[in-house]
Design brief:
The protein has 358 residues and is an alpha/beta fold. Helix content is 48%, strand content 15%. It has one domain: 3-Layer(aba) Sandwich (Rossmann fold). The strands form three sheets. A seven-stranded parallel beta sheet has the order 3-2-1-4-5-7-10, with helices on both faces. A three-stranded mixed beta sheet has the order 8-9-11. Strands 6-12 form a two-stranded parallel ribbon. β1, α2 and β2 form a beta-alpha-beta unit.
Length: 358
C-alpha cells in the first residue's frame, strides 16, 4: 500500500511524553493552588486509590493519548510495558520523578505477572497495541492469535485482581462491519449490536479484523463468567499527527479490504484524541450508564474528495482507497449505514451534565 519513510519514532515518543507530563504538572499545580486559596469549608481531596488506573501499551500511539487524557483528568496512571526498551523510554522522560505516572513491566503471557502489575489499580485500559515480533509482515495471521491470547491473559488478570473493578478494552470497528451482504435488506445498519462474521474474515484474509474479533468475543466471555465490568470501544481507522509513521502496523492492517469498505460506506475514521476522550468518558460512566459495546468514529469516507485527503494523510495514492470509483460527492445510498448513536448520546449527556454543574 505504501512505503513508510525512515522516522525517528523513539525521539518523538519521548518528546511527546515529556511535553505531556510538563503540561499535566502545570495543571495539577494550578489545581493545588486553587485548593489552597479556596477558603470554603469541608473541601475533601480526591481519593488517590480510586484514581489509580493502568494503561497497557501506554507508549503506543493511542496509549499515549489515553495516558494524557487520564493525567489531565486527575488520575494517577500506571503504564504497563512488556520490554526493557519501553521502560527506558519512560525513565528517560521522567528523570526527575513524578507521582502522576509510573511504569511497570509485566509479561503479557503470564497472568500472575499481569495481576501483580494491576494490583492496587481500580481500572484497566487494555489498548491491545501489538506489532509483528519479526517486524516484517505487519499484522499477520499469527498476530491474530497473539492478540487473542494477550487479551485473554489481561482479562483473566483483571478478574483475579481484587482491586480492579472495571476494564475498558480497545476493540475495532472491524469487529462490526465484515458481514455477508443481506440482499433482501436495502439498507443494513452497522452499529454496536453488529458483529463481523469470522468466516468472512478468514476467507478474505483479514487478519487484523479476525484478531480484534476473537479477542473481543473472548473478553466478553471472561467478563460474563467472572462478573468483571467491561466496556469495549469499536473505533474506526485511527488518524492524527504522523499516524502512518507512529502507528504503521495498525494503520495498514486496518486498510486491508479498504476498497470494499469504501464502496459500502463503511470506511470510518476517528482522531486519536477523540478516541482517547471516549475511553475516559466511558470509564467514568461505567458506574452509572455505560455498558456493552460502543462504536466510535468522527467521519465516514464516502466520496473521492475525502478519500484523497485521507490518502494524503497516510502517504498513499487515492486509488488505493477508491479503486476505480469516481464518486466526487457523497452518494445518496450505500448498502450499509454506520451508526455511533449510542456513544454520541452518552457524550451529549455528559456534556449537558458538565454544563449544568458549571
Amino acid at each position: 500500500m505504501g512505503i513508510i519513510n525512515p522516522f525517528d519514532e523513539e525521539s518523538v515518543v519521548i518528546e511527546e511524553l515529556r511535553r505531556m507530563l510538563l503540561s499535566c504538572s502545570a495543571v495539577h499545580r494550578r489545581k493545588e493552588e486553587d485548593r489552597f486559596n479556596d477558603q470554603r469549608p469541608n473541601i475533601q481531596p480526591d481519593d488517590d486509590t480510586e484514581k489509580l488506573v493502568c494503561v497497557t501499551s501506554g507508549v503506543s500511539f493511542l496509549g499515549l493519548s489515553i495516558v494524557n487524557r487520564l493525567l489531565l483528568n486527575g488520575y494517577s496512571v500506571r503504564v504497563l510495558v512488556t520490554n526493557q526498551e519501553d521502560m527506558e523510554k519512560l525513565r528517560e522522560i521522567d528523570k526527575n520523578g513524578t507521582s502522576m505516572m509510573t511504569a511497570v513491566m509485566a509479561n503479557i503471557n503470564d497472568i500472575d505477572s499481569l495481576s501483580e502489575a494491576f494490583n492496587g489499580c481500580r481500572g484497566i485500559f487494555h489498548t491491545s497495541a501489538f506489532v509483528d515480533p519479526a517486524g516484517l509482515s505487519g499484522y499477520s495471521k499469527a498476530m491474530a492469535d497473539i492478540e487473542l491470547k494477550a487479551c485473554e491473559h489481561v482479562m483473566e488478570a483483571c478478574a483475579r485482581t481484587s482491586s480492579v473493578r472495571s476494564c475498558v478494552l480497545t476493540s475495532s470497528l472491524l469487529t462490526c462491519l465484515w458481514q455477508e451482504k443481506r440482499t433482501t435488506d436495502p439498507s443494513t445498519i452497522v452499529n454496536h449490536d453488529s458483529w463481523s462474521d469470522q468466516s468472512v474474515c478468514l476467507d478474505k484474509k483479514l487478519w487484523y479484523a479476525l484478531g480484534k474479533l476473537k479477542a473481543e468475543k473472548s473478553a466478553w466471555n471472561i467478563a460474563e463468567k467472572s462478573g468483571l465490568r467491561l466496556v469495549t470501544i469499536c473505533g474506526g481507522l485511527v488518524t492524527g499527527p504522523e499516524v502512518s509513521h507512529r502507528n504503521p502496523t495498525a494503520t495498514f492492517a486496518y486498510l486491508k479490504g479498504v476498497q470494499e469498505m469504501y464502496a459500502n460506506g463503511l470506511l470510518a475514521t476517528v482522531d486519536v484524541g477523540s478516541l482517547a476522550d471516549a475511553h475516559v468518558v466511558l470509564y467514568e460512566a461505567m458506574d452509572k450508564t455505560a455498558f456493552g459495546r460502543y462504536v466510535c468514529f468522527d467521519d465516514v469516507i464516502q466520496c473521492e474528495n475525502k478519500a484523497a485527503k485521507l490518502a494524503q494523510e497516510l502517504g498513499l495514492k487515492a486509488a488505493v482507497i477508491t479503486g476505480n470509483s469516481q464518486n466526487l460527492e457523497e452518494p445518496s445510498h450505500h448498502p450499509f449505514q454506520l451508526s455511533n448513536v449510542k456513544l454520541s448520546n452518552l457524550m451529549l449527556r455528559r456534556l449537558s451534565c458538565n454544563d449544568y454543574n458549571s
